[in-house]
Each structure stands twice: as structure tokens, then as C-alpha cells.
Amino acid sequence: MRARRLRAGLKGWGGVGAMAAVCALALAFVLLLPRTQPYATGDPAPGGQRTAYATRAKADTCKDSEAHDRSLSPSSADGPTLGAIRSRGYLSVGVDQNSYRWGYRNPNNSTGELEGFDIDLAHRIAKDILGDENKVQFRAIPTNERIPAIRSGRVDMVVRTMTITCDRLRQVAFSAPYFLTGQQVLAPKTSEITGYDASLAGRKVCSGTGTTAYDHLSADKKNGRLPASTDIATTVPNQLDCLVRLQLGEVDAVVTDSALAASQAAQDPAVALKGTSFTREFYGVAMKLGADDLVRRVNRTLEDYRKDGGWKESYDKWLSATLGRESSAATPPTASYR
Q: Structure pTM?
């Protein structure tokens, strides 16, 4: 009965049928995407093994609360990775295509072009490196393929609501942070779930495979912060699939970044954020280990993007309606470099 009532009340952004269709199209698009190798494949990237090893060694001593402060200082100097990108003539960027207001295909836009906060940032990076914001090739990748896409050389970088963590720093390089967020619970408005607390006892919770949300769920079940009866077994390759599971009544709640949760609540008026964020996390642009010249150039772009108002303009356009103009997320995070 609960599942039927929930399905009947879901009307946002085309309802369940539209959401399922969007996800099916997204999956088909991903499967049809060509695989490219913009520069050498394998773990060592331009810059050499020594640099990659040093980055890993540095990451081994880090704490997640400090992981966002471990990027390289900004620079506009050229290097082998930037040279390869310029020779090819375009920037290859891994993105999402179904995260509302972050990276998505607006069904009301006849051009079919990707839109959103992350998409704006990718265009800005392309403009700074190649002189033309349109010299970028977007490759839609699922949540659990972000790191493999970088390490294999399929993309130059990933701009896809990706949290900077110590574990990920051992596998990829990150820019300085470009967005502050935190984990939060998303559930039906009528649900008795109150947040990331005892109200999740006996509930089914969905999270994305390989996400920090699942890492927290798993750790907190072990340390007793979450009730032992909370079922966290449902994970999905693409985080948006959790919303579909919630709409269909297959799970009781979703745990994801508050920024993504707010956008999903905007898509569907039958769901809402519950409680408050229970972590403090930062998104970064992910690149290949050893691609130091590219990392430094992206950090130069982020510095300029904050100073010239481009970041704020993009936030106001895409995110202020869901996150607010006065929230902590409305100000770009201050960068600190190692």
C-alpha cells in the first residue's frame, strides 16, 4: 500500500515514467559513447612515475577533513599534459547528464546540450586552456566509473560532483575545492524519517556505488551511529537511480550530497531533505596522477573563476533556487595549497 500511495503522489519532472525513461536513455547514451585515450593509458601519466609516487605518499598521511587542502598551487605554465590537449584540439571531460542543475539534458531545451553548474565550470576550463569554451568533448560516465575513466585516459578530467577524499587522492589528483557540501537524507515528505538518526531503524537506504555516502553508511553501521537494523544493501551505479528506487517505493530513503539531494527534491515535490547535513565535504575537479601542469592550470582557472564573478553567476543561475542565496554553499570555498 505504501508503495502505491507514493507512486500516486509523485508528479515532479514528469513523474516516475519520465524519470525511468531519462535513466534508460542515460544508460543507453553511456553505452554508446566512444572510448578515447587522449594521452597515454595506464596509471603513470605525463609528469612521470616519480611525481605520481610522491602524490600517493602524501595522500597516505592525510585525513579526510584536510584532503581538500592538498592540491598544487595555481600556475599558467605549460607542460606535457596541456601540450597533448592543445595538440588534440579539445578537452575531454567526464560529466553527469542526469543530475538536475549540475549536469543534465534539459527536456525543454531543443538543442539537447548539457547544462548545469558543473557544465559551466568545464566550459570555463576549456576556454582558459584552448581559448574557446566550446572546445570540450563531454563524456557521460556513471558515478562508479569516474576514477576508472581518468586512470585509463578516457577523459582528461572529471567534473561531476566528486568529493575530495584521502582514498581517492591515492588514485587520482584533485584540484582545489570548488564547492562545499555534506551528506544528507532524502525521503518522502510524508515519511516519519527525521534525518540521519534512529529513525532509519528497519529502513532500506539507497546510495551510489563507490560514493562517500556509502562509505559513511557502512562505517556508521559498524560504529553504532546508525541502527543495526538499517538496510544499506541497495547501491546503484548512477546516484540518480536512487531517486527512482525511492519513487517506486523500493527503498525508504536516499543518502547523498545535500547539493544533489536539494536538486532531486526540486525535481520531485513528493520528496524532501530530512534533518541537516551530517558531514562537511568538498567537490574537486579530478585528473590523472602526475598531470601536475593540468592540475595547476585548473587551479589557476578556479582562482580566476572565483575572483571575476563567474562562479557566483553560475551558482545564482543553477543552484540558488534550491540551496538559497545565503547558505554556506553560496560562497566558493577558499583554497589552501600544499
A: 0.82
Q: How far is CA 215 from the centre of its chain?
A: 15
Q: What is d(CA 260, CA 274) in angstroms, rounded to the nearest whole number? A: 13
List b or e across 287-315, with b for residues whose CB sees 16 or more CB atoms inside 10 angstroms: bbbbbbbbbbbbbbbbeebbeeebbbebb
The 3-state DSSP class for residue 324 equals coil
232: its cell numbers: 544499506
- Number of other residues whose CB lies within 10 A of the CB of residue 61: 9
C-alpha distances in angstroms, 301 versus 114, 121, 153, 157, 190?
A: 21, 9, 22, 14, 44
pLDDT bin (cut points 50, 70, 90) of residue 37 is very low
User: pLDDT digit string (tens) for 283-330?
Assistant: 999 999 999 999 999 999 999 999 999 999 999 999 999 999 989 999
Residue 285 and residue 311 in contact, taking contact as beta carbons nearer than 8 Å: no
The residue type at 113? E
Q: Do the strands 103-105 and 114-115 form a parallel or antiparallel pair, or are they unpaired?
A: antiparallel
According to the model, what pLDDT value does residue 60 have?
A: 59
d(Cα 37, Cα 333) in Å, to the nearest integer?
32
Three-state secondary structure of 201-235: CCCEEEEECCCHHHHHHHHHHHHCCCCCCCEEEEE
| Residues 212-263 pLDDT 10s | 999 999 999 999 999 999 999 999 998 889 999 999 999 999 999 999 999 9
Cα 222 from Cα 102, distance rounded (Å): 33
46, 78 contact by CB (below 8 A): no
Calculated CA dihedral for residues 28, 31, 32, 37, nearest 10 degrees: 150
